[in-house]
Amino acid sequence: MDDDAMTRFPVPDRAEIPDDILERIDEETEEAGFTPNVFDAFAYKPSHFRAFFAYHDAVTEDTTLERPEIEMLIVTVSGINDCLYCVVAHGALLRIFADAPKLADQLATNHRSADLSDQHRAMLDFAETLTESPGDIDDSDVKRLRDAGFSSEEIWDIGSVVSVFNLSNRMATLADMRPNDAFYEMGR
Amino acid sequence: MDDDAMTRFPVPDRAEIPDDILERIDEETEEAGFTPNVFDAFAYKPSHFRAFFAYHDAVTEDTTLERPEIEMLIVTVSGINDCLYCVVAHGALLRIFADAPKLADQLATNHRSADLSDQHRAMLDFAETLTESPGDIDDSDVKRLRDAGFSSEEIWDIGSVVSVFNLSNRMATLADMRPNDAFYEMGR
Amino acid sequence: MDDDAMTRFPVPDRAEIPDDILERIDEETEEAGFTPNVFDAFAYKPSHFRAFFAYHDAVTEDTTLERPEIEMLIVTVSGINDCLYCVVAHGALLRIFADAPKLADQLATNHRSADLSDQHRAMLDFAETLTESPGDIDDSDVKRLRDAGFSSEEIWDIGSVVSVFNLSNRMATLADMRPNDAFYEMGR
Amino acid sequence: MDDDAMTRFPVPDRAEIPDDILERIDEETEEAGFTPNVFDAFAYKPSHFRAFFAYHDAVTEDTTLERPEIEMLIVTVSGINDCLYCVVAHGALLRIFADAPKLADQLATNHRSADLSDQHRAMLDFAETLTESPGDIDDSDVKRLRDAGFSSEEIWDIGSVVSVFNLSNRMATLADMRPNDAFYEMGR
Amino acid sequence: MDDDAMTRFPVPDRAEIPDDILERIDEETEEAGFTPNVFDAFAYKPSHFRAFFAYHDAVTEDTTLERPEIEMLIVTVSGINDCLYCVVAHGALLRIFADAPKLADQLATNHRSADLSDQHRAMLDFAETLTESPGDIDDSDVKRLRDAGFSSEEIWDIGSVVSVFNLSNRMATLADMRPNDAFYEMGR
Amino acid sequence: MDDDAMTRFPVPDRAEIPDDILERIDEETEEAGFTPNVFDAFAYKPSHFRAFFAYHDAVTEDTTLERPEIEMLIVTVSGINDCLYCVVAHGALLRIFADAPKLADQLATNHRSADLSDQHRAMLDFAETLTESPGDIDDSDVKRLRDAGFSSEEIWDIGSVVSVFNLSNRMATLADMRPNDAFYEMGR
Predict the structure, then answer these.
(1) Which end of chain B is more exposed for a tag (fewer CB within 10 A), N or C?
(2) How many CB atoms lie within 10 A of CB A77?
(3) Is C90 part of any domain?
(4) Same domain, D103 and D181
(5) Nearest CA-CA distance, residue D48 and chain C, Å
(6) What does the alpha-carbon distance between residue F133 and residue E176 come to, in Å, rounded to a whole number?
(7) Residues of B in contact with C102 (CB under 8 A)
(8) Is residue F48 located within the same domain as residue F121?
(9) Residue D105 in contact with residue D91, Cβ under 8 Å?
(10) Tell me, what's the pLDDT at E104?
(11) Can you list the residues of chain B whose pLDDT is less than 50?
(12) Residue B133 lies in a domain
């Protein structure tokens, strides 16, 4: 396990980590070619590791959204919340899943300057409001998503990705999780 | 299932809901004497129901914090995020778990005006910063928690409750989940 | 006089308080069954006591608004300004005057989540703007109130309640006025 | 009465105005050499006129503060709230009472750039916080005023001026009260 | 050279200042009857003096805007950025160029309360957005300017004045440049 | 000239562009291997082109700061102002000048998460304040820079870079300048 995965909490040794978590870490490592630091970091507390990745898996796997849309939401939200780990790691995923090498830098900086369809612009405007001022959401915000062509379940799924990464951004910033060097480069 | 549990998504019929979810709903109903609307609402999407309550259970059950401290964090964060469901439902839980009938109204309005120990004041100041401006968190914020006597694991647990309810507040507001009438009154 | 009515200024003894102020305090005490702490607190400076309650009486008595509307405005403004005394004391009055046990908690948390007519929603949207960013008010805000059916005098009266409680919230927070225990419970 | 005293409510004719209010207006007119528009404007609702000027008189007459300090507070608060009438009218009064022709423009723009003693800087820093974010006030803000040499009653009086002009700024902006031409020039 | 032109950097002696800069200073002094302090201040770093006034000259001389419009933009932007030097010095220029003694105080306080045509209101609304939240600018903001009758080059010129004074306000505040006494009075 | 250099103003043909400007464009093109779009964009208005690059040259060439420090300031400021062109183009320059492939993404997202010396952290904290709330700057901010070891001229130069890019960010966003594709990749 990489001691430099985060700076504010100790990363546990493999010997201390339960088998189901090691198994997940090994799968991810095989898939990515390296262990994304978020796995080493969340291993600090196994029950939270399980819950965090269960929610992450739910919103990325049981969804009406395309995977590039999910990563667009994540990068936009993480840019608003100034979360380095999530911007860099999910920037890489967005470049790969959307086959769009410039989109991540655009969304992390300002979704208004990104090359987007009108529908995706509406989706990301909503993500911005739900992130910055959740208490301001009312029927008119939801109506704007419907007018842009999103179904009820798509709206739920958009809201879920935004919400999960409002969680994720806060944990990554609190722990000062460090993006793996590989993420800065992937998919460019 | 209560059609009025939320206004922006349809609540499913019992017949449509997987058994493991019905089982959890029934357990909660038995314990509370009524079904908290958040269960009816999340049943809209079973995989998200499982993930949401798994994370909720993780941060309330595998924790170094006392249960009243957890509810203090939740009510403070939910007040900042203007989330009606969470303020009212967890306000009830705080009154009961802390045996403190006034504390929930104080924290939902302004934790600076609440009757708090210095340690709890530091904990809630941190919760406010992590909620309002997660990108501003740096070593000095974490040091202030340590100076107030919190261990590393306690700081992780505080951050986890704050983060999970930054998720929860957004889903509850998006869905317009309605607090059950019973919550307004419990524990006063 | 209750020494705990506020924490940042001393509450005077009855012997030090002018007769006209004692008379008002006694009337209020008889009506409420206890002395609301705001009276003990403002007795600290008799000339300010007289002015404060004169303005309070003017906006609650010489008005085109219904009393529940006045209390809806007060609870909404006080929630925005995070004023514990005013949220709790006027929350109680709103529950009683509107015969609506849940409305105060809804408005103190987020008027967008409250059960409101369109006209009252417009009224409280205006109250929010006038409270949070008074310099942003222009003809379009006033027009929205007229379009919602409010007359000129009603708009003046709405603005007056909002303005008086922008005063009141600041004095109550500065003095750290403590809500009487009774207010937390009344009208539920 | 000047129909141009405000743009959003009608100014009443003298014939419609109660005698006690005409008397006050005439006194002010004699003293200033013209009728400040705030008097014509508040005559729209006599009971509010009486309450408003009663509170105004209380905080300017029964006070531990010097008159220039009161006007410094008013101009600073009114600048923060972007209130044209109050900045211009009380800017004139500040120039005259403080015999300081530049101070009003400095405070209306940025009290940090004004020529101030340390004590007055502390007073105006406090006025800024109480105006912009009243819910953030806690013991440390009050302690800073005490450390700057202010007594309890002076702190109450400072808070009262700030609070009354948080009322006044909102009414003047709502009504779009227009500063008399004379105020722009007085005391320069 | 005036040692009191700014408080946070030393003002150089004439002997230290290159001839081209002395020449410009002397021209300005002859024209105004005194040396505006911004010239003494920028002489601290001659290369920056040349660049600053070159840009200033470009946006005031090669422009589709009328000079009063330029000064309206400057005073509005400087008021938003709380820049004392720019509000006072350009307030004087606005009074003179627009032959409008009250306009500068109105715009420095709140352009919503100023006596403006609809077109100038649109121009200043845009200046406010570009100053306060440049990242929020999108096609809709530019369209609003076009709908108000501004050509492409006028929009460029408006944006340039706003941008140059977002530079200027920051340098003046950082250096604590002091407005010459004469500016407070000119054109009233 | 590249018609896609910006979307909100037309890019002129070479034939319309004055010789001195063509010369500068050709020099830049030779040096970079392509024409950075900011040159095509500012050619829209030659007098502004000259002034903009004169100021840019002044703050990058006549300076006490190291070039990597200048680019650190630019990327940080541009990230705060959400300016796509400046984040991407100067991100490339920072990677090259500082020989630090990850630093640009870190600063564009959150300078608190970047690998920085204490002195550079202080420099960028100051850049953040001067960008976000220029009116809040006072002696204490300048003192913090001095305490971190910066001389007067270094502080002037830091402030100048921040100020020039508060101009630049606004022009780039207004014109919707598009970063050349090459910038996204350079120096990684």
Answers:
(1) C
(2) 29
(3) yes
(4) yes
(5) 6
(6) 15
(7) 179, 181, 184
(8) no
(9) yes
(10) 98
(11) none
(12) yes
In F, which residues are within 8 Å of A8 by CB distance?
none
CATH number of the domain that residue F56 is part of:
1.20.5.810
Q: Do D137 and B112 touch (CB under 8 A)?
A: yes
Residue E138 contacts A where some CB pair is shorter than 8 Å: yes
Task: Identify the domain containing residue F38 by its residue range.
Answer: 14-61
Integer Cα distance of B81 and B64 in angstroms: 25
Two tokens at B7?
């206004």
* H-state helical runs in A81-151: 84-98, 103-109, 118-132, 139-147
The residues in D 78-117 lying below 8 A from E, measured between CB atoms, are 79, 82-84, 87-88, 91, 101-102, 105-106, 108-110, 112-114
B152 and B75 belong to one structural domain:
yes
F3 pLDDT exceeds 90? no
Angle, in degrees to the nearest 10, between helices A84-98 and A152-175? 140
Measure Cα distances from C137 to A118, E119, E123, F144 in Å: 31, 19, 18, 38
Helix/strand number for chain B, H first, E second: 10, 0
Same domain, A77 and A20: no
Q: Is C6 helix (H, G, I), strand (E, B) or coil?
A: strand
Q: How far is A105 from chain B (nearest CA, A)?
A: 18
Are C55 and C165 in contact, with CB atoms under 8 Å apart? no
* CATH number for the domain harbouring residue C107: 1.20.1290.10
| Cβ contact C184–B105 (<8 Å) | yes
- The verdict on B188 touching C (C-beta cutoff 8 Å) is yes
Å from E155 to nearest chain D CA?
Answer: 26
- C10-59 pLDDT tens trace: 999 999 999 999 999 999 999 999 999 999 999 999 999 999 999 999 99
Cβ-based contacts of E159 with chain F (< 8 Å): 170-171, 174-175
Query: How many Å apart are CA B85 and CA B90, to the nearest integer?
Result: 8
Same domain, yes or no, for F20 and F83? no
Q: Which member of C79, C108, C185 has the closest CB to residue B188?
A: C185
Between chain A and chain F, the number of residue pairs with CB atoms below 8 A apart is: 62
Written as six digits, the tokens of D127 are 């006025």
| Contact present, F78 and F169 (Cβ < 8 Å) | yes
Q: How far apart, in whole angstroms, are the C-alpha atoms of residue F89 and residue F104?
A: 10
Q: What is the mean pLDDT of residues E129-138?
A: 98
Pairs across D and F, CB distance < 8 A? 5
Which residue of D lies nearest to E78 if distances are taken between CA atoms? D109
| pLDDT tens by residue, C59-118 | 999 999 999 999 999 999 999 999 999 999 999 999 999 999 999 999 999 999 999 999
Q: pLDDT tens digits, chain D, 188 residues: what are they?
A: 888 999 999 999 999 999 999 999 999 999 999 999 999 999 999 999 999 999 999 999 999 999 999 999 999 999 999 999 999 999 999 999 999 999 999 999 999 999 999 999 999 999 999 999 999 999 999 999 999 999 999 999 999 999 999 999 999 999 999 999 999 999 99
Between CA E129 and CA E137 the distance in angstroms is 7
Q: Which residues of F touch A181 (CB under 8 A)?
A: 102
DSSP-assigned letter for residue A82: T
Residues of A in contact with E135 (CB under 8 A): 110, 112
Global ipTM: 0.97
Q: Which two tokens stand for residue D35?
A: 């009728």
What's at E79, amino acid-wise?
G
Q: Is residue E124 included in any domain, yes or no?
A: yes
Q: Is residue C57 located within the same domain as residue C85?
A: no
C8 part of a folded domain: no
The reply to whether F79 and F131 lie within a common domain is: yes
Q: Are residues A50 and A114 in the same domain?
A: no
Spatial contact of C134 and D170, defined as CB atoms under 8 Å apart: yes
CA distance E93 to E85: 12
Domain count, chain C: 2
Q: Is E29 on the interface with C (CB under 8 A)?
A: no
